[in-house]
Specification:
single chain; 431 residues; mainly alpha; 2 domains; two-stranded antiparallel ribbon
């Protein structure tokens, strides 16, 4: 019991530090929080079964699981290049830390879902739910895979209308392949009339999704959704209807991981134990090579396209005067985020002691603008080039008016999308 309390205390402590804006916790909060959550569920499992699931798996296999988790999520990041459903803001500007933090954060996805599902199983949740057995013919299996292919094609052809279908593609395409190999997945369960394992995994996805969005809400380095049509009704950052995708995603994770275990490419544990005949080394080499290509291309996509802002460096903020720059340097302030949250009161006192009142006020307006919804330096400098250096100057602007204005100004770097401009304007603080 004390170890469970330790996990809860860990999450509570880091949540408070993130809310206070203490760095590097605020920027890397998501990874810290999920570490505590996985540890907590692992201890709950140990209390139910007598031994930790991580201890049974082993350190090296657990790291392998995390790496496959990152590869799995990078596939969705590549899909997002076409979907444009989310983007990341205010990630660290330190290259190595950003890379490591990204991989570790994505590496918590599969453990998070699977540990929640495993613990639910130890509590007997949904274990006895049954239905009439479902017959699975070769034609039905092929039909499911064809539906998966159609879903993927529709997402790529018309993402504005069919983007939700991406969360069913993997389960529809991989589950029949698993069934044909004799892997005991959700189709096998349905064939026996056992709905419990599937419903439990869906529930695990809902629970994991709730934690994902809760932790993301409090993080400084976070993602923002731009889901067409449903971007106003939200719980935390996620549009309400978007929560439907989490249970489907959990089922997809299980399908993909079962196939990896079958081929001996990922560690077996819990409900994922079925392994096929020994495979040739060439299979391992080819699969690992493909996984590395997915991870590399996925990370590049995230870092160069889907991440839209990094922690704003003072030296990169165009509208600051030389006096403001000198004052910030004298106060040892290198990033605008140091002027918000923990310790910022003292820093502002130092700045006001050397800046005139109007200069200090103008600096505060720039800080608020550049940190608003993760605007950052590239977009912030583009706004400044358009004559906008405060949030007040965004008031009464229409989305199209501002978007077109930002396309015409001469400023280096990318132009924000219309959806991003909409986020900035719709979430302006109340006057």
């Amino acid at each position: 019991m004390p170890s469970i309390a330790l996990g809860v205390a860990w999450m509570a402590c880091f949540s408070c530090l993130a809310a206070l804006g203490v760095e590097p916790i605020a920027t890397f909060f998501f990874g810290f929080a999920w570490t505590g959550l996985i540890f907590t569920f692992d201890r709950l499992i140990a209390r139910s079964e007598g031994r930790s699931l991580i201890a049974r798996l082993g350190a090296a296999p657990f790291v392998c699981l995390m790496l496959w988790s990152a590869v799995n999520w990078f596939l969705y990041e590549l899909a997002n290049l076409r979907l444009h459903n989310w983007y990341y803001v205010l990630v660290t500007d330190h290259d190595v830390a950003r890379c490591v933090g990204t991989v570790l954060a994505f590496g918590t996805v599969l453990p998070g879902v699977f540990w929640i599902d495993h613990w639910l199983g130890t509590q007997g949740v949904l274990t006895s739910i049954r239905t009439r057995p479902i017959a699975l013919s070769a034609a039905r299996l092929t039909g499911l895979q064809l539906i998966g292919v159609v879903f993927l094609a529709l997402c790529l052809i018309d993402p504005d209308h069919f983007y939700p279908l991406i969360w069913g593609v993997t389960a529809l395409m991989l589950a029949p392949a698993n069934y044909r190999r004799g892997i005991d997945g959700w189709l096998s369960h349905w064939q026996r009339g056992e709905l419990g394992p599937t419903l439990r995994m869906l529930l695990a996805g809902v629970i994991a999704g709730g934690f994902w969005e809760f932790f993301n809400f409090w993080a400084r380095g976070r993602w923002i959704y731009t889901v067409p049509g449903f971007d106003e009704w939200k719980i935390f950052e996620m549009p309400v209807l978007g929560f439907i995708g989490f249970p489907a995603f959990a089922l997809e994770c299980a399908c993909a991981y079962r196939l990896l275990v079958w081929y001996g490419l990922a560690p077996a544990f819990g409900a994922f134990r079925q392994q096929g005949p020994a495979r040739r080394p060439r299979t391992l080499i080819v699969t690992v090579t493909i996984a590395m290509l997915i991870a590399t291309s996925g990370y590049i996509a995230v870092d160069r396209v889907i991440v839209t802002s990094r922690t704003p460096r003072v030296a990169d903020v165009a509208p600051l005067s030389q006096r403001q720059q000198d004052a910030l340097e004298g106060a040892r302030i290198t990033h605008l985020t140091q002027l918000l949250g923990w310790g910022s009161t003292e820093r502002w006192q130092k700045l006001r002691s050397v800046l005139e009142a109007k200069e200090a006020e103008a600096l505060g307006l720039v800080v608020d603008l550049y940190l608003h919804q993760g605007i950052g330096t590239i977009y912030g400098n583009r706004l400044a080039a358009a004559g906008i250096t405060s949030l007040d100057q965004l008031q009464d602007r229409t989305i199209d008016e501002l978007w077109h204005a930002l396309q015409t100004v001469d400023s280096p770097g990318r132009v924000p999308t219309r959806a991003q401009v909409k986020v900035w304007l719709r979430r302006l603080p109340a006057q």
